[in-house]
């Protein structure tokens, strides 16, 4: 079965393997970059073998070697277990290509790829830089003489990330509820004190 890159939106590149790639040269934070990839139907790129890294290296070196500004990939620290890194598309962490002495800081929550060595480094998520999107190739299924392309994977954030966001929202809601309750109680106490002072 033949696999190929989606025609829309334009810009996906086929280097072989299971994935197509898109190079975003706009300098964005890690979160903005991943959202841009999601809008294209993919996510920030995940890598699961040295071969996937090697086939992409010549193309990345053309774009980024001279500037030494390394692009984001879809690797980030687990929200509950910060010593662990996970892929944003939810695929397993079955391959590692960390540079020497990387990762080296728990404050650096996201990862980029050093194109000259195709190794990873952790970095501050809010620092703008270019990025690499990936999407699984789609297959062509012939039916009644017409080719129908299966929809691309639209994986978003991993389950852990979504659970973390939901937890944060619930926590903020709880804190706001406590503050509102406290303020309302304070208001009632002041009203009672005013009434008592008038009676006296």
From TrEMBL:
Record keyword Transmembrane helix present: yes
InterPro entries for the chain: C-type_lectin-like (IPR001304), C-type_lectin-like/link_sf (IPR016186), C-type_lectin/snaclec_domain (IPR050111), C-type_lectin_CS (IPR018378), CTDL_fold (IPR016187)
Name of this protein: Macrophage mannose receptor 1
Alphabetized PANTHER family for the sequence: MANNOSE, PHOSPHOLIPASE, LECTIN RECEPTOR RELATED
Keywords from the named record: Disulfide bond, Membrane, Receptor, Transmembrane, Transmembrane helix
Transmembrane segment boundaries: 161-184
Residue ranges annotated for the C-type lectin domain, each copy included: 16-134
Organism the protein comes from: Parasteatoda tepidariorum (Common house spider)
């Amino acid at each position: 079965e033949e696999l190929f890159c989606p025609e829309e939106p334009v810009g996906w590149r086929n280097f072989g393997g299971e994935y197509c790639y898109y190079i975003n040269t706009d300098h964005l934070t890690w979160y903005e970059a991943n959202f841009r990839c999601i809008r294209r139907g993919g996510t920030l790129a995940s890598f699961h073998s040295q071969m996937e890294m090697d086939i992409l290296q010549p193309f990345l070196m053309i774009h980024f070697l001279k500037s030494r500004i390394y692009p984001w990939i879809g690797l980030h620290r687990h929200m509950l277990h910060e010593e662990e890194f996970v892929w944003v598309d939810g695929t397993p962490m079955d391959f590692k290509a960390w540079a020497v002495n990387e990762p080296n800081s728990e404050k650096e929550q996201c990862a980029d790829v050093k194109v000259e060595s195709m190794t990873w480094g952790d970095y501050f998520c809010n620092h703008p830089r270019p990025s690499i999107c990936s999407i699984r190739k789609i297959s062509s299924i012939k039916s009644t003489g017409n080719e129908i392309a299966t929809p691309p994977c639209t994986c978003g954030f991993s389950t852990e990330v979504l659970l973390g966001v939901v937890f944060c929202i619930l926590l903020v809601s709880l804190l706001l509820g406590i503050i509102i309750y406290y303020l309302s109680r304070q208001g009632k106490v002041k009203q009672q004190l005013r009434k008592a002072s008038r009676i006296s």
